């Protein structure tokens, strides 16, 4: 069948002509209105908040007394005599610095000492509170080829017993006056 213009029509179906530069409507992709990606922004915001919370929690110091609070001296501390305090430092290959306090401890009491925790006071000349570090006392086990330490519980101090010790600090305050720090036993385990 031909129409008035001479085009062939198929039976029962009329051929429609699309305007130039357009595809027929059944082959067109539907257009969707563009909107702001609120879901993606919300997910990113939640991820940032979680990251900030994790970083804050990782940066917290362990619970305990503030660094400028001196704790009471242990009852058995009067029987421990500390002498010959010496200071030294070393620098690691990665640039970190360690400060050492070496000394000698003697048990003048009647009990065996199985553990000692000390507070070490790094004073300054700037009128600021000192930095106070609380660390376990570690006895020197060997000195060659390097100084090796062990806890007091590994080698308890019997009555009349003596030993050398080393305290290790990875960070000391920049305003420390470089004088030998003060030291006090705040916890002593005995048997």
Model description:
With 191 residues, this protein is mainly beta. It has a domain at 75-190: Immunoglobulin-like (Sandwich). 12% of the residues lie in helices and 34% in strands. It starts with 37 loop residues before the first helix and ends with a strand. The model has no long low-confidence stretch (mean pLDDT 83).
Number of strands: 8
Total DSSP helices: 1
User: Could you report the average pLDDT, rounded to the nearest whole number?
Assistant: 83
Proportion of residues in β-strands: 25-35%
Largest sheet: 5 strands, antiparallel
Give the uncertain stretches in residue-range form.
Answer: none
Give the helix proportion (percent range): 10-25%
At the third CATH level, what is the topology name of the domain at 75-190?
Immunoglobulin-like
CATH class placement of the domain at 75-190: Mainly Beta
SSE order, as H and E? HEEEEEEEE
Strands of the biggest beta sheet: in what spatial order? 1-2-7-5-6
Concise structural overview:
This protein has 191 residues and is mainly β. The chain is built from 1 helix and 8 strands; from the N terminus they run H-E-E-E-E-E-E-E-E.
SSE blueprint:
Blueprint: H1 38-59, E1 80-91, E2 97-107, E3 113-122, E4 131-136, E5 138-142, E6 148-151, E7 162-169, E8 182-190
Q: Which terms would index this structure?
A:
about 190 residues; mainly beta; Immunoglobulin-like; 1 helix; about 10% helix
């Amino acid at each position: 069948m031909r129409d008035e213009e001479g085009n062939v029509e198929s039976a029962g179906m009329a051929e429609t002509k699309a305007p130039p530069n357009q595809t027929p409507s059944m082959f067109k992709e539907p257009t969707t209105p563009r909107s702001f990606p609120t879901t993606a922004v919300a997910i990113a915001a939640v991820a940032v908040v979680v990251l900030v919370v994790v970083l804050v929690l990782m940066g917290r110091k362990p619970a305990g007394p503030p660094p400028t609070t001196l704790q009471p001296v242990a009852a058995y501390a009067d029987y421990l005599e500390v002498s010959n305090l010496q200071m030294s430092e070393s620098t690691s290959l990665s640039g970190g610095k360690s400060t050492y306090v070496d000394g000698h401890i003697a048990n003048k009491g009647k009990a065996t000492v199985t553990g000692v925790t000390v507070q070490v006071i790094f004073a300054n000349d700037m009128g600021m509170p000192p930095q106070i570090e609380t660390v376990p006392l570690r006895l020197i086990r060997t000195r060659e080829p390097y100084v090796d330490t062990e806890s007091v519980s590994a080698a308890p101090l019997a009555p009349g017993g003596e030993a050398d010790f080393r305290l290790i600090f990875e960070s000391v305050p920049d305003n420390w006056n470089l004088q030998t720090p003060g030291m006090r036993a705040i916890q002593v385990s005995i048997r």
